[in-house]
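Subject: Interface between my chains keeps coming out wrong

I've been trying for a while to get a sensible model of this assembly. When I model each chain on its own everything looks fine, but I need the whole thing in one frame so I can look at the contacts. Pasting all components below, labels as-is. Any help appreciated, I'm running out of ideas.
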Amino acid sequence: MPRRSASAVDADRARTLREAVDLASVVGLEGLTIGSLAERLQMSKSGLAGRFGSKEQLQLAALDLAAEMFANVVYDPAASAPAGRRRLLAICDRWIAFLGEPCFRGGCFLTTASVEFDARPGPVRDAVRATMRRWLRVLEDEAATAVRQGELPAGTDPAALAFTINALAVGTNCDFQLHRDASALARGRSAMEALLAPGPAPLAAAA
Amino acid sequence: MPRRSASAVDADRARTLREAVDLASVVGLEGLTIGSLAERLQMSKSGLAGRFGSKEQLQLAALDLAAEMFANVVYDPAASAPAGRRRLLAICDRWIAFLGEPCFRGGCFLTTASVEFDARPGPVRDAVRATMRRWLRVLEDEAATAVRQGELPAGTDPAALAFTINALAVGTNCDFQLHRDASALARGRSAMEALLAPGPAPLAAAA
DNA sequence: GCATATACGGCACGACCGTTCGCTTTCGGG
DNA sequence: CCCGAAAGCGAACGGTCGTGCCGTATATGC
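Reply #2:
Try treating it as a single job with all components included. I did that and got this:
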């Protein structure tokens, strides 16, 4: 039997994972070591390792939490906006804000993990891919709704629009993280808003 | 005295660095180890380490070579195009082609290095930042020329345009590397071309 | 109150890391 | 012709990695 209640265990696990995500956002998911994380949590290596079984499972759990936090901070506040273009704008707004003041020290965790594992086959790469695909699907569905409601040019391809928004966000994150210049955020925001401008002008989302 | 001619030493060093860049594009600049690189080159660890002095200097040298290769493949072929919008379009064309068939297995090395080191102070981060800044400056100058020549809307901010092009390239690289879907390349290209469309329509590069 | 399941610490293992120290081999200059 | 500079090798260093094993403390169900 567990020596503490299940909820306490869960809370402890969440705290551990939050620290793991914060650390990994700086040194990468591979650079995240059991030892350094244990030291941060004032635990022994073996105690920490026992919780997750292996480093890979720790990586997967950290990835899951990061995705959940991202959704909480970026999508959830925007979900109250009316579906379609307005919600997309709200998402972009929250997204840029998230990039400017990320929950973790090393910038967007998902971007870091994506770049780190994009050429390394394995469960972590698969999980990153699935997470990204799921998020892009959300954007895509929202874009399709916007087109259906006539808020965007009729020829707009929702998938292309979702791709471009995401690409701008990723690029903005990289630039801001590297140079720490807030003008990157303003420029990323402008580019997104231009992309989502109403009216008949066909923008970058065609075909 | 060197036991071989200086040019032979340089050629050998270049070959070594090319392999280092290829390896690092997959596992990252930090994941690049002396041992694995030595094995690849059929050398001893100590022999390889002696050439560069330290791992950090190897990282810096690899970064330099990668930047040079990027310029050779992306900028140089486009330099023959007339300065301004036409050259920018040529750069984007070569850039997308480069992303689709990178010289190295792990995709754009500069993006990988940038994301990997953007939160880790030190000489490598500084070098990445300088390299990126230099490249963005090239784009910016070209954009300024295009605006001056009236090939782009008058209000266009060259720095913002350069930022957006770069962001699209970085985002396209991430998406393509992760999903290995060529449609990412087409979408990135479309977004860039829409950004560089002539005519008076103010696009994402305003302010 | 006791037995038991379980989380955690201490410890050690083998592997690999970057780096260093001789040693050999090999060439170019006096 | 020989001597010295230098490159590269093998081996070893201390350190850290992920991962098991085992003892122990502890909280809960009986």
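Reply #3:
Confirming on my end. Residues 1-4, 9, 43-48, 50-51 of chain B lie near DNA strand D (CB under 10 Å from a C1').
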